[in-house]
Amino acid sequence: MKLWGTEIRALCPHTGELKTWGGDNVQAPTWELAQQWCDANKGYLKVIGELVAEIPCDEETYEADFGGKLDYENIQNN
Description:
This protein is α+β, with helices and mostly antiparallel strands. The protein has helices spanning about 30-40, 70-75; strands at about 5-10, 20, 25, 45-50, 55, 70.
């Protein structure tokens, strides 16, 4: 099953500014079905794209740690 990233536009509780925040990841076979799920369950989320990988950062240097990459495309194709 594909994994889709979402976003939410909401007021910052500290400044009152309208900001864009990262939302939940949603599992669905297509973008359209992911957005339908969001509309039905969490109407404030907007699907922004397919999540294909997560690359962690080294805790000391904050450099990308490609060795720890979690590849969602490989996982769903197995």
